[in-house]
Amino acid sequence: MPARPSTGRRTLLFGAAAAPVAGLGLAACSAPDGGASADATPTAPVDLGAESELAKGGAKLYREHNVVVSRSADGDLKAYSTICTHAGCPINKLQGTTLVCPCHGSEFDAVTGKVVRSPATEPLHELPVKAANGRIVAGPGA
């Protein structure tokens, strides 16, 4: 009669098979590129484009710089990093004035930087911003 594998061996084999799957759960909470962080925001002033492209009461997402800029009804500018404070994912979607993170669905108000939908709990990081010579400039030293 053939010998049956011991329970210990089954447990070991099951554990070995489950380990890579468990790793996927950890990877799901990291940034899609494997390492985006707050460092992905501007470290020096960047020219984002013509000031005329941003309407009063609106917001514009500058994906290539990981920045969102909003303009209040009275013309004041605000800028925020679009690196999600939950898991460091770059936010790539703006619906009206709401930013939507592609990783876990966190939503932020582009005008205030505040969280409007979890899992994020911390607001976006505010960046210096100004209008100079008809251009929007954001980032440290702006």
Q: Give a quick account of the main beta sheet: strands, pairing sense, barrel closure.
A: 4 strands, antiparallel
Described by the principal axes of the CA atoms, the overall outline is: globular
Rg estimate, integer Å: 22 Å
Helix coverage percent? 10-25%
Number of strand segments: 11
Terminal Cα span: 80 Å
Would you tell me the structural class of the helices and strands?
alpha+beta
| Average residue-wise pLDDT | 82
The order of strands across the largest sheet is: 2-3-4-9
> Strand percentage, roughly?
25-35%
Q: Counting H and I runs of at least 4 residues, what is the number of helices?
A: 1
Question: How are helices and strands ordered from N to C?
Answer: HEEEEEEEEEEE
pLDDT < 50 runs, ≥5 residues: 11-38
Structure notes:
The protein is built from 1 helix and 11 strands, in the order H-E-E-E-E-E-E-E-E-E-E-E. The chain is an alpha+beta fold and 142 residues long. The protein has a 4-stranded antiparallel β-sheet, with no helix packed on it. It has a 4-stranded antiparallel β-sheet with strand order 5-6-7-8, with no helix packed on it. Strands 1-11-10 form a 3-stranded antiparallel β-sheet, with no helix packed on it. Strand 5 and strand 6 form a beta hairpin. The chain is globular. The chain starts with 6 loop residues before the first helix and ends with a strand.
